[in-house]
C-alpha cells in the first residue's frame, strides 16, 4: 500500500486509512462485527509506527464514545467505529457528543439490529439514531468512504458547525469487499485538512471549567437545541463547499448532500442512498435504453436533511420512487417519510412511492430496482396509490398476505 | 452575507458562590463553649468541610456559611466543648 497510488482495499481498510490520513490523535476502540477490522487496522497502523495516535481500548461502546468525547473535549481529533447493537449501546452518549458540540468522527458500518441475529446490511441502526444531532452521511463505494471521512472532519470542525459526524457504510457490501481506491498523499491531506483547534470550549487544567450544567426552563436550553439545528442547516452549504474544494484538490467529486445522475430530463426519479444508489445507476441506464425517462437522486446526507435540494430537483416530476433499507414500523421508511414531508407543500409536488426492502442484507440488485420503478410507474399511471409505503421482495407467501392487506385497506 | 452561527454551550467556571453555600443544608448548628475548649484542634483536623479556623482570640471559629451541621466536630471533641443546637 503506497500513499498517492491506487490499491485494492476493503471499505473498513479505507475507513482506517482515512482516520490515519486525517491525523486523528485518539482512537477509541471496541470491536463488533462487521466493524472489527477497522479498529484492527488502526491498531496495526499505530503499533507499526505508520500512524501516531493514542489507542484507547475500552470495555463497551458506551465507554468508547465517552472516551472519544473526553478526548475531543480536550482538543484532540478523535475517531471511533461501530455497528448495529454497538451503536445502540452508544445511544445515550451520542446525544452527549452533539450537545457538547464535540466534533467526534465515527464510521458506522450499517448492520441489522437483532433479534434475530443477523450481521448483514440494513440501515435500521443509524436511522434509529437520526435525532441525536449527529451528521449522517451514507456512502456508495470504498473510495467514497475514504474521501467522505476526510471531508467530514473539515465540515464538522467548521466553527459554524461543531457537531459530531457518522459516515455510514453498508456491512460487507462495502466493509469487507475489495475495490480499487486511490489513496491520497499525506501532504495533500494535510494541506486540505488543518489540525483541529477547539474554538468554543476545551478542557484545560490551567483554566478549569465545568461542562453541562443544570439549566432551568427559563435558561437557554431551547436556544441550545436551536443552535444545533441551525448549525445542521448551515452544514449543508459548508458540505457543498468542502466537496468542491476536495474535488479541485484531489479530482474526485461524490456530491455534497445529494448526487444527481441522469436528472436533466427525467420524468421519474429514484431516490435512495448508500450502495442501493450504485445499483440504481445501473437500473437508470437500462431503463433509459428502454425509453423510460428516469433519473437517480442519491441522498448522501440524511442529517442534515437537504430539503432545498430535494424541492429544487423533484418539483414537477411525475413521481419519486424512494427505496428505504429500514422501517419505522407502521409509519414507513424514514427517508420516504421525510421526502414526502419535504415535498408536501410545494406546488407541483410529485407522488412519492416508498418501498421498504433489503432488510437484514436481502440482496437488492439493479433488477429489483427496475422492478420497483416499473411497479411505481404503473401505480402512478393507474392511480393505485393505496398506501404511504409498500414492502418489496417479501417471500411469496408473505407478499400475498401483504397484497391482500393492501387491497383491503 | 456571512452570518455566524451562535454555538451555545453550557459551561461554567468554578467560583465562590451561592451554589456552594452548603450552610443552607443545616438542620443542627455546632456551638462552641470556649470555657470548655482546650484548643487541641482535633475538631479542625476532623471537619470534613474545612470550615474551622483559628479566630482572633486563639479559639476555633466555625464558618457557618459552609458548615453542613454534620456533627463530627461535636463527636470528636475530647472536652465535649461543642454542642449541636437545632437551627
Features:
heterodimer; A: 409 residues; alpha/beta; 6-stranded mixed beta sheet; 14 helices; 42% helix; globular; B: 87 residues; alpha+beta; two-stranded antiparallel sheet; 2 helices; 21% strand
> Helical content of chain B, roughly?
10-25%
Task: Tell me the number of helical segments of chain A per DSSP (H or I, 4 or more residues long).
Answer: 14
Strand content of chain B: 15-25%
Shape, principal axes of CA atoms of chain B:
elongated
Task: Write down the Rg of chain A.
Answer: 21 Å
The neighbouring-strand order within the major sheet of chain B is 2-5
Rg of chain B: 20 Å
Could you give the order of the helices and strands of chain B?
EEHEEHE
* Count of runs of 4 or more consecutive helical residues of chain B: 2
Shape of chain A: globular
Beginning-to-end CA distance, first to last residue of chain B: 62 Å
Q: Hey, roughly how much beta strand do the residues of chain A contain?
A: 15-25%
| Major sheet details of chain A | 7 strands, mixed
Assembly state (oligomeric): heterodimer
Q: What is the tally of beta strands of chain A?
A: 16
How many beta strands in the DSSP annotation of chain B? 5
Mean residue pLDDT of chain A: 94
Topology as H/E string of chain A?
Answer: EHEHEHEHHEHEHEEHEHEEHEEHEHEHEH
Detail the poorly predicted runs of chain B: none
Low-confidence stretches of chain A: none
If interface size is counted as residues with C-beta under 8 Å from the partner's C-beta, which chains form the largest one?
A: A-B, 23 and 11 residues
Explain what you see:
The complex is a heterodimer of chains A (409) and B (87). Chain A has 409 residues and is of the alpha/beta class. In chain A, 42% of the residues lie in helices and 18% in strands. Chain A has helices at residues 11-21, 36-47, 61-73, 84-89, 91-99, 124-127, 142-156, 186-192, 221-250, 274-289, 307-314, 334-343, 366-382, 396-408, and strands spanning 6-9, 26-29, 54-57, 78-83, 105-110, 135-138, 165-170, 179-182, 210-211, 258-261, 268-272, 294-299, 301-303, 319-324, 352-356, 389-391. In chain A, the strands form three sheets. A seven-stranded mixed sheet of chain A has the order 3-2-4-5-7-6-13, sandwiched between helices. Chain A has a six-stranded mixed sheet with strand order 10-12-11-14-15-16, with helices on both faces. In chain A, strands 1-8 form a two-stranded antiparallel ribbon. The longest helix of chain A is centred in the middle third of the chain and has 30 residues, at 221-250. The N and C termini of chain A lie far apart (57 Å). Chain B has helices at 42-46, 72-76, and strands spanning 11-12, 28-32, 52-54, 60-62, 82-86. In chain B, strands 2-5 form a two-stranded antiparallel ribbon. A two-stranded antiparallel sheet of chain B has the order 3-4. In chain B, β3 (52-54) and β4 (60-62) form a beta hairpin. Chains A and B meet through β9 and α9 of A and β1 of B. β9 of chain A pairs antiparallel with β1 of chain B.
